[in-house]
C-alpha cells in the first residue's frame, strides 16, 4: 500500500531573525534625518497601518519607542519572522508585496485598538488584498513602500520616508476579507523565531 498523503490542507512555514540586526537598522544614524526616522520607515515597510497603530499603543510614538530600543527590536524581529514564516507557507505571496498581505494581531480581538499594557498571544491574518501601511486619510510620501528591507541591497538604501498613521483611526477587522492562521513566536538570546500554520486558501471568484 503506498504512503497516504498528508490529510489536512495546511502549510507550515518557519523563519528566524537576528535581533541585533533589527536594532542596528532602527537606530541607524542617517545624515539629514532625525533619530526617529529609520524606525518610522522600517515600521511602514513591514507593518500595515493597524499593526503600526498597535505598535504605537504599546511602545509610544517612534521618538519615545527608541528609548526602549532593545525591546522594540525584539518585538519587531518576532513580527518580521512571523510574516516571513507565513510567506514561506503561501506560494502566491511574492517578495515585493507579501508583507502587506499579512497581519500579526493579538489573538484577543479587543486588545488590538486598545491600551498598551494588556497583551495576548499572536494570531495571523492572511488578507486577500494587501492592506496599505497607513489609513486612507494619510498621504503617502514615497512610492517605495514595499521595497524589501533585508534583501541583498544595503539597509540604508532601502529606507524611505512615511508619515505616522492617524492616532484616531480605528481598524474594523470585519471590513477585510481574509483567513486567520496560527502563528507562534519565540525569542532566545539574539534570535527571534516564528512558525506559521496556514490553511490552503482558494478565494471565491479569484485565486
From TrEMBL:
Disordered: annotated span: 113-144, 154-173
Residues of the 4'-phosphopantetheinyl transferase domain: 11-106
GO molecular function, one term: magnesium ion binding
Signal peptide: none
InterPro entries found in the cross-reference section: 4-PPantetheinyl_Trfase_dom (IPR008278), 4-PPantetheinyl_Trfase_dom_sf (IPR037143)
Transmembrane intervals: none
Keywords, sorted A to Z: Transferase
Pfam families in UniProt: ACPS
Name of the molecule in the record: 4'-phosphopantetheinyl transferase domain-containing protein
Organism per entry: Westerdykella ornata
Higher taxonomy: Eukaryota, Fungi, Dikarya, Ascomycota, Pezizomycotina
